Amino acid sequence: MVGKKSDARGQWIAVVAGALQRGDGFWMMHRRPPGKHHGGLWEFPGGKVEPSEMPEEALVRELHEELGIECRPGTMSPSGFAEICGAGEEHAIVILLYTIAGWKGDPVALEGGEVGWFTPAEVIGLPKPPLDEALAARLFQNL
To answer: Helices (H) and strands (E) in the chain — how many of each?
Structure first.
């Protein structure tokens, strides 16, 4: 866990992220566009889970919107989570990370930014938001 105790309201936001691995062992990371929150930092792609969605459904939708790829829930495996508690007006966030071994299409940064393919050691060394730092450390701890 990163951060302080949750606020009295106990409100939190569920977020999903995908760790896409190619057959050659390289992992995809998305660089956030300049001007956005955490602009210029690298992250596992994904986004918020809508109230009517299950996490895997949200990840399928988010990866299609952000990267233009098609995934199926059967190709996803839960691989960890990270959380940060809100401070002041910010909500607490819980990110659920799924590894993804199969998809259709070539990932492209459709909402700005860029995508890149990296070794686990390179992913660890990229500048990332705090929750993605925690997710990467857990994902690659046994590699």
So the answer is: 3, 8
